[in-house]
Amino acid sequence: MMNFTNDEMNLMCIYQSDSRSGLIAALTEMRGYLDEDEAELRELTDSALQKLGEITDEDFAELELVPDFDTDE
Predict the structure, then answer these.
(1) For the CA atoms of 24, 25, 26, 29, what is the dihedral angle to 10 degrees?
(2) Would you say 42 and 28 are in contact if contact means Cβ atoms under 8 Å apart?
(3) Which end of the chain is least crowded, N or C, by CB within 10 Å?
(4) How would you write the pLDDT of the chain (73 residues) with one tens digit per residue?
(5) In the chain, where does DSSP find H-type helix?
(6) Residue 4 CB coordination number (10 Å)
(7) What is the spatial distance between Cα 62 and Cα 36, in angstroms, rounded to a whole number?
(8) Residues near 51 by Cβ (< 8 Å), separated by ≥ 6?
(9) CA-to-CA distance for 25 and 27, rounded, in angstroms?
(10) Taking Cα atoms as reference points, which of 47, 60, 49, 54 lies closest to residue 20?
(11) What CA–CA distance (Å, rounded) separates 14 from 12?
């Protein structure tokens, strides 16, 4: 299964959907609203979208989408 970073997991939690395709759609829509000065968030979103595109729906169903905003890692 794909290894998502902590930041990618947190982003996916914010836009969580019941399905992989729903989450991809939500992240893609959000990405369309990003300004040029939000390059870091755009890169994070692109990375998450790429990884979501490479896993199966079954792998997505096994993900534990629980936010972890602890920055002391």
Answers:
(1) 120
(2) no
(3) C
(4) 569 999 999 999 999 888 999 999 999 999 999 999 999 999 999 999 999 999 999 999 999 887 777 765 4
(5) 6-14, 20-31, 39-54, 57-62
(6) 18
(7) 34
(8) 2, 4, 8
(9) 6
(10) 60
(11) 5
CA 47, CA 45: separation in Å to the nearest integer? 5
Tell me the C-alpha distance between 12 and 26, whole Å: 9
Pair of tokens at residue 24: 């991809």
Q: Which two tokens stand for residue 16?
A: 């969580």
Encoded tokens for 3: 């290894």
- Cβ atoms of 7 and 44 closer than 8 Å: yes
Q: What is the DSSP string of 31-45?
A: HTT--TT-HHHHHHH
Instruction: Give me 15's structure tokens.
Output: 């836009």
